Every structure is written in C-alpha cells, then in structure tokens.
Amino acid sequence: MTSLETIVNLSRRRGFAFPSSEIYGGLRSAYDYGPLGVELLRNVKNEWWRSMVSARRDVVGIDSAVIQSRRVWQASGHEAVFTDPLVECRGCHQRFRQDRLPKPDQCPGCGRSGTFTEPRHFNLMLRTHMGPVETDDNLVYLRPETAQGIFINFANVLRVSRQKLPFGVAQVGKSFRNEITPGQFVFRTREFEQMEMEWFCLPSEASEWFEYWVDARRRWYLDLGMHPDNLRIRPHGADELSHYSVETVDVEYRFSWGWDELEGIANRTDFDLRQHAEHSGEDLSYFDPATGTRVVPYVIEPAAGATRTTFAFLIDAYRTEQVRGSERVVLGLDPRLAPYKAAVLPLSRKPELVEPASRIADDLSRRLTVEFDVTQSIGRRYRRQDEIGTPLCVTYDFDSLDDQSVTVRHRDTMHQDRVAADRLYPYLVEHLGL
Ligand code: GAP
C-alpha cells in the first residue's frame, strides 16, 4: 500500500502540491497546487461536472458566493450545531478532536493520561467581518459547504431553468472549515474544494433516488480507474448522522491509515428548503402538475471533496515495478485525469530536431494538454513522464526528418509504435480513449 510519505514526496518533487506559505514555514491548513496538481485537480472536477451536469438534461449548475448572509447559516443550523468536540490537555495544552483520539483518555501530544478538559462544542465555521467595522452585526462566515448556496437559489433556478421534479443543481467550489486537527496532507485542510449536487425529488421517491445516486457515484470512481478493492460504501450509524440527514452513506477509500471518507451521500429530506422558507418568508415549494398540489421536495445529496478525491486518485494510480534491474515509478492515471495527455520529446537538442518537434507540440496543444521537454537523456525523460502519469510520449528522432514519422511510447506497456506525423493526432485520441 502506498504510504502517505511517498505521495507527499512525489507531490513536492514533481509539483502536484506544496504546503501553502512554504517560504514562511508553511500553514498546515492549506496547500498550493503546482503545475501538475492544478491540471489533475481540474481534470477531476471536469470529469465530475461532465458526468453530473453536462451529460444529463436533468441537472444544471450554479456558482454561488463564498460569503453569504449570516442568516443562511442560522437557518441551516450550522451556526448552532456545526461543531466538533474539542478537548485540551492540561499537561501540554495541545487541543484535539475528542472523537478522533487514538486512545480516549491519553494525550497523543505528551502521552499523559487523565489530563483532558471536559469537551466543548467548537464551531467549525471560519468567520470574518463585512466592511470596516468588526461588530456582531456584520459578522459573516466563509461557507463550510457549497450546498446552502444551492438551497437558497432553489426558487431562482426553478424559475429560469424550467426543470421539473426530479432534477438536480450542482456546484463545485471552495469551502472552509476551521478543523481542529487538519492533517494527512490534503486529506483534511481548512480550505478545500467540494463537488456537490442537490437532487430535488418527490418525498415518496426519495429512498429510490438515494439508492440510484449511491450506485451512480460508486461507478464514477470505478470508471475513472479506481481499484475496486480500495473503494467501499459504508452506511452511517444513527449516532453519526448529521443534523439534517435521515440516511447517509460514505464512499470510502482505503488509505494507508485505514478506510476514510471521500464522499457523503445523504437523504436531507425537506429540512433545508423548509428551514430557508421559514427563515426567509419565501415560498420554496414546488407545484406538482400531476397532483395539482404544492410539495416541498426532498433532497438527495452526493457531496464529494474535489481535493480529497484528487489525492485518492493520485495514491491509487501510484505503482513501482522492476524494469531491467532498475525501479520504474508509474502513475497509472486514467488518460482523462492525467495532467498531460502526451509529451513531445525531440531525441536531441539539435535545432533540426527541436524545431519540427516543437511545431508538432504546438499543433497538438491546441487540442490536448501536452508537455514539450528537451532536457536529459531520452530514458530519463521517459521515466519522468511515467512518474507524472503521461500516457503517451512522442519522440522525434533523426529518422523522422526522412520518414516524417514519430515514435509513440505507451506508459503502461512501454510498447512503441511508429506513426506518420500527419496521423499523430487521431492516433493519440484513439489510444487515449478520449
Ligand atoms: N453538504 C454536505 C457536506 O458538506 P461533508 O461530508 O461534511 O458533507 C463532503 O463534506 C465532502 O467534502 C467530504 O466527503 C470530503 O470529501 C470533503 N471535505 C469535508 N471536509 C473536508 C476538509 N476539511 N478537507 C478536505 N475535504 C473535506
């Protein structure tokens, strides 16, 4: 199983993610995505959007503000109950989340037992103030989930999109939580990205749709190449359910520290729409033409973490193998997720190879994300591309000058094909499965 350390090292060395504010000692709360990480993260979000929004006629997207009225969070219940139990060790004064302590009575910081304070409810929302004066009247929160931005726009979307029940509204964006113990690299951070969809349906059909979305979401991970042995669906026990949910499952990944959550899928009932209707005074019901009555829809919510899922795809794709007595590191990412779809590599730095190879790269980059690399030996360049997950390498050599062809090397099999330069793009598309 790939260790956390291996992935952290790969990420820093190759440029997937760096600790935020690293030159000032780093913030454990947040990470900056480098040139490769930003492509991988974007590909994960695009694949989610494609399957949840673009490929469906019954789901539309929105992009709501991070800062919303404080009343949103009063209505949703987050101001009152979005808390974790916080304990402090009286010996070393470190603070911990009580429900995540490895041993309930022993401080993981200093090892003493019986030193914890009584737990207190610590609210996870990050706060700031709107405008120049810091008073309670202009207190606002950075959203801890993207979901509420969807509920408060329910009537707007219904009015403009002409959707009929059942339908979904999706959103991808940043969320913020003042986690007591961020950690495990980008797994738990205070600033992160979510991919959430609220599926509005008739209350009588909610259980059926819940099953539908659990299955659809499970298949999404598997279709993008996640190993089935590393993925499981775990139903929540009654004591774990959030304040808004009557039924929840977690989609979990087998990390090096054990099974942990990638996504929660919840039946939120009509809790949120009713809360917002009551607090705002707006009618958030739906007129059902079939029965001629008004109904407050139930909501099934698949809520995934974009940054956390990206991290899991990275771990899942990592493998090492022996090739002719030396170790080869391969990131076997699905081509749809790979940061670069292809790399164009002139065999030498000589201008007669670099110039035509560069023209090929320019031509491909109009339609595919490609890298152009002239440094080091061809063997080392292949190894680098294997390690960052590039599915295909295109080598322009001295024979190319005569036969107008290039060598295409496949990441997973290391098999090589000679391909006419003017057939290169269709060849790549076919072998990438795009
Ligand atoms: N709207 C429901 C909701 O937010 P959640 O289970 O609290 O549900 C959904 O969050 C997903 O967001 C989680 O499954 C996880 O992938 C991601 N997530 C939550 N907190 C996170 C954190 N501190 N760092 C990274 N990802 C986080």
Commentary on this structure:
The strands form seven sheets. A seven-stranded mixed sheet has the order 3-9-10-16-13-12-11, with helices on both faces. A five-stranded mixed sheet has the order 20-19-21-22-23, sandwiched between helices. It is α+β, with helices and mostly antiparallel strands and 434 residues long. 31% of the residues lie in helices and 30% in strands.
Task: Record keyword descriptors for this entry.
single chain, 434 residues, alpha+beta, seven-stranded mixed β-sheet, five-stranded mixed β-sheet, 13 helices, 31% helix, binds glycyl-adenosine-5'-phosphate
Bound molecules: glycyl-adenosine-5'-phosphate
Q: Which structural class do the helices and strands define?
A: alpha+beta
Radius of gyration (CA) equals 25 Å
Q: Number of DSSP strands?
A: 23
Task: Give the helices and strands, then pairings.
Elements (H helix, E strand, L loop, with lengths): L3 H11 L2 E4 L6 E7 L1 H20 L4 E3 L8 H7 L1 H4 L1 E6 L6 E3 L22 E4 L3 E3 L9 E3 L5 H5 L2 H8 L5 E10 L14 E11 L4 H18 L7 E5 L11 E9 L2 E12 L1 H10 L5 E3 L4 E3 L2 E8 H12 E6 L2 E6 L10 E5 L4 H15 L4 E3 L5 H11 L3 E5 L1 H6 L1 E6 L5 E5 L3 H9 L2
Bound molecules: glycyl-adenosine-5'-phosphate (GAP).
Q: Could you give a short description of this structure?
A:
The protein is α+β, with helices and mostly antiparallel strands and 434 residues long. 31% of the residues lie in helices and 30% in strands. The structure holds glycyl-adenosine-5'-phosphate.
